[in-house]
Amino acid sequence: MNIGLRTLLVSFLLLGALSLRAQSFVENAQVNGSFQTDAQYYMPDTGIDITEAAINGKKLGINGFGKVGYTYGDFSAGLRFEAFLPELNGFRSELNGVGLANFFATYDNGFIGVTVGDVYDQFGSGLTFRTYEEWSLGMDNALRGMRVVLRPFQGITLKGVYGRQRFYWAPYNERDFGTDDYRGIVRGVDGEWDLNQSIGSMNDSELKVLVGASFVSKKQKDQSLFYAIPENVGAAAGRINLGYGRFNFSTEYAYKVNDPSAINNFIYKEGRSLLSSLSYSQKGLGVVLQLKRTDNMSFKSSYAAKQNDLDINFIPPINYTHTHSLPSLYTYSTQPNGEMAAQFQVNYTIPKGSALGGKYGTKLALNFSQVNDIVRDTIAFGNETGVNVPGTLGYTSKFFAVSDHRFFRDFNFEIDKKINKDWHVTAQYINLYYDMETIEGHVGTPVVKANIGFMDVTYKINNRQSLRFELQGLWENEVHKGYEYEESEKKDYQKRGHWAAGLLEYTITPHWSFSIADKWNYGNPVPEYRDHYFTGTVTYLHDATRVMLSAGRQSEGVVCVGGVCRTVPASSGVSLTVSTSF
């Protein structure tokens, strides 16, 4: 933590130096910030198999952060302080600690922009480079170093980045391979050209054209005792976005040279990814078709990394994101080693005044998404053949060949209807297929085949008070068929089977909200897991400040944001969240 304290001291010295000129640039400066604390007190609960031993003496977990930003003309700066004392259950233990996690200073006059410190940016859709922070996942892969943005002509943007990624509280110098914080240097360039801005004759054209390309590399010393690891690994991508009238088409293709790692079982196959989207929109109607192929595209700044850390790139998910508790039990997590995915979405609003639309109109949404594995063909090595054997080229794969192995499928249909000024109803049906063995790593567990439905009803009592009622059901089609498990495997079935959930929420605007909820795993194939997960929550809002106090049980599950996931263990206790911004 010494380096964090030194960095904090330097930051305060810089801020102190700036304050000497306060009279010259405080008057027109803007300062903003946000703070949040998430705390949970853990209690044993034998009803859901949480014993004193299970919580391992951990009575309290606290995650907290504070962000402050400063802007004056072309200059901006900011910092983020974090504290995990210790981290909440489900977060990586490496987060345990306190210190300055992020700081930056930027000068940008429109022609050139320079950032020093921690850089968050994205090239295209992220297939070659994306750094970001997601507090709810404990995810932060910021690049500490430098970024330069150049805009030499109207419509042309050039970027360059250089640095080393954050790995929790580890120092930013390269260390021996035997340590967990060993990681290489990331370097990247990106260029984007908006033809409609650059070419006068296209300024007002109905045809919109934007093209871009990127190249990113990592440099990491080879200290493996078993394999010859490339010390420079590069990835390149090209993209185009075309728009004409109500239509829009975008596509990006990425290629990565051989990059043996712990994620791909140390094979020497190149990586490829293609992401395409075609959409049509007009008043009351929107249609989107997306396709994606990913093959061996994990790209990390350490070839030894195994979990959701040190990702240089990002593979966007193209499946529907559910927000209700039962549908989100089975959220898909992107598979970087290989997947073929498609999504089709239609949004339609039945016009106001029609027989079905009524006074306020009726919103309909239909979505279908499916993800399959890619086809992998054997290769020869020595006198043998195989697939994914460490130290070999791994396999061959035809680009558009789709495997019969399905990872995920989600078909859902939603109706959103405002009946009158007091009543609003949202209802959705979901048909789900979920390969738990692949997505969550529960070896040997059968796939989940389920039907899910929910109804969300809001009643406006008056201008200040409202009631919201939520009812959900999940029915697993084959929950009682073929479930044979060893005693040691019972945990893999903790969230399986039929579920029912309900919530009642009473809101008094603008400050108060009260809710009670319960989830009941009444059809679990393991009788001792047929538990109720009840919670009570009180929320208070005052301007930009939010205080939420909850008590009860939390079921085991997976929390996902943008295709990146973490496992949340079952827990029982009291939690408090306080957040504010200015």
Describe the structure.
With 582 residues, the protein is mainly β. 6% of the residues lie in helices and 51% in strands. The strands form four sheets. The protein has a 24-stranded antiparallel beta barrel. It starts with a helix and ends with a strand. The model has no long low-confidence stretch (mean pLDDT 91).
Average of per-residue pLDDT values: 91
Number of DSSP-assigned strands: 30
The global form is: globular
Gyration radius, in Å:
26 Å
* Sequence stretches where pLDDT stays below 50 over 5 or more residues: none
- What percentage of the residues does DSSP assign to strands (E)? over 45%
**Number of helices in the DSSP assignment:** 5
The first-to-last residue Cα distance is 29 Å
* Class by SSE composition: mainly beta
The helix content, as a percent range, equals under 10%
The main pleated sheet reads as:
24 strands, antiparallel, barrel
Features:
single chain; 582 residues; mainly beta; 24-stranded antiparallel beta barrel; two-stranded antiparallel sheet; 5 helices; 51% strand
